[in-house]
Amino acid sequence: MSDMTIGKVAKAVGVGVETIRFYERRGLIEQPTRPEGGGYRVYPDETVRRVHFIRRAQELGFSLREIAELLMLRTTLSADASDVRRRATAKLQDVDQKIERLQRIRQGLTTLLDSCPGAGPLQSCSILDALEHDEVLTGEPTRSKEKGMQTVRLTIGGMHCNGCAEIVRQVLEQQPGVKGCSVSHENGEAKVAVDTSQTSGEQLAEAVRGAGYSASIATEAD
């Protein structure tokens, strides 16, 4: 494998061409210069290895910013293995916290299902009744709403496939205050749960535009 077009690089790694271009815009991989007189840009074998690295790191939960730092370490003469280990340890702690939260959610759902009669009128539904109270069955108080939290819906143009939607999702989830989001390329929209005291709807739209897509605020509701 040597000197490939962007399409061949994308096929070798199993991603879309737009994903490669997105990584280029983020500075994660270098875009080759176009040959004099025209023609296709050609990519070295190193690009495939680098994209593989990025994808594997993403699968382990590293953000694009963290991946950029890991890639920089590879070319930093003063860096050593302890720098990489420190970042991996921090990521492991982050994953452990998420697992703990998911376990609490699972415990709560299990408790709700165990107390559900499974039949009868809705007025006697134990699940609906429990969700209406301030105390979840895990024993933890619910927070009806975090201060400043809103759901922002963005209308997004230029998404052609699920790969595009994944790029937009990654961009949005890296913005300060974003707690989660869903992106649909079929509907051309994204729904973002965000603390607007940290990032406004317009800033979210601007971040999407920076990734090469058009974006505007459709609604911004409590």
Report on this model:
By secondary structure, the protein is α+β, with helices and mostly antiparallel strands. It folds into 3 domains: 6-73, Multidrug-efflux Transporter Regulator, Chain: A, Domain 2, CATH 1.10.1660; 97-131; 149-221, Alpha-Beta Plaits, CATH 3.30.70. The protein is 47% helix and 14% strand. The chain is built from 8 helices and 4 strands; from the N terminus they run ααααααβαββαβ. The protein has helices spanning 6-13, 17-25, 45-59, 64-73, 81-114, 126-131, 162-173, 201-210, and strands at residues 149-157, 178-184, 189-195, 214-221. Strands 2-3-1-4 form a 4-stranded antiparallel β-sheet. Strand 2 and strand 3 (189-195) form a beta hairpin. Helix 1 (6-13) crosses helix 3 (45-59). The radius of gyration is 22 Å and the shape is globular. Residues 134-145 have low confidence and may be disordered.
Question: Topology, pairings included?
Answer:
Blueprint: H1 6-13, H2 17-25, H3 45-59, H4 64-73, H5 81-114, H6 126-131, E1 149-157, H7 162-173, E2 178-184, E3 189-195, H8 201-210, E4 214-221
Antiparallel strand pairs: 1-3, 1-4, 2-3
Helix pairs in contact: 1-3
